[in-house]
Amino acid sequence: MKFPKSVKRFCPTCRKHTEHKVFLAKKKAPSPLKYGSKVRARRRGRARGSGNLGRYSKPPVTQWKMTGKKQTKKTDLRYLCSVCGKTHMQKEGLRIKKVEFE
């Protein structure tokens, strides 16, 4: 999909419409801190004790669930204000295989 190199849009820092440079940001790796929260959740689960947990004891019904990998990743577009130099993110990414700036 083709995007313009620059776009005029609202800058929340300048509080007015200014020219913004459009660029694609690289996705960051997941945080290493997530391991600790998993351990804490495991300990909390142990404190609950053993026994029947009602509907939470049964495995989820997975016969209708779709499996497999998504074919595309969502775009992470950023907008750089030409006046203040601050970067703003897009609200929601689009699933696109190829991104071009013209």
Structural overview:
The chain is an alpha+beta fold and 102 residues long. The protein has a domain at 1-27 and 73-102: Nuclear Transport Factor 2, Chain: A, CATH 3.10.450. 14% of the residues lie in helices and 26% in strands. The longest helix has 14 residues, at 34-47.
How are the elements arranged and paired?
Blueprint: E1 2-3, E2 6-11, E3 16-24, H1 34-47, E4 77-81, E5 87-89, E6 100-101
Parallel strand pairs: 1-6
Antiparallel strand pairs: 2-3, 3-4, 4-5
Structure in a nutshell:
14% of the residues lie in helices and 26% in strands.
Features:
four-stranded antiparallel β-sheet, Nuclear Transport Factor 2, Chain: A, 1 helix, about 25% strand, alpha+beta, 6 strands, about 100 residues, about 15% helix
The overall pLDDT, averaged over residues, is 86
Corresponding CATH architecture of the domain at 1-27 and 73-102: Roll
Strand content: 25-35%
Distance between the termini: 10 Å
CATH topology group of the domain at 1-27 and 73-102 = Nuclear Transport Factor 2, Chain: A
How many β-strands, per DSSP? 6
The CATH top-level class label of the domain at 1-27 and 73-102: Alpha Beta
Count of separate DSSP helical elements: 1
How many strands, which pairing sense, and closed or not: the largest β-sheet? 4 strands, antiparallel
Low-confidence stretches: none
The arrangement of helices and strands along the chain is EEEHEEE
Instruction: Please state the CA-atom Rg, rounded to the nearest Å.
Output: 22 Å
The percentage helix is 10-25%
Shape: elongated
Strand order of the largest sheet: 2-3-4-5
Class derived from helix and strand content: alpha+beta
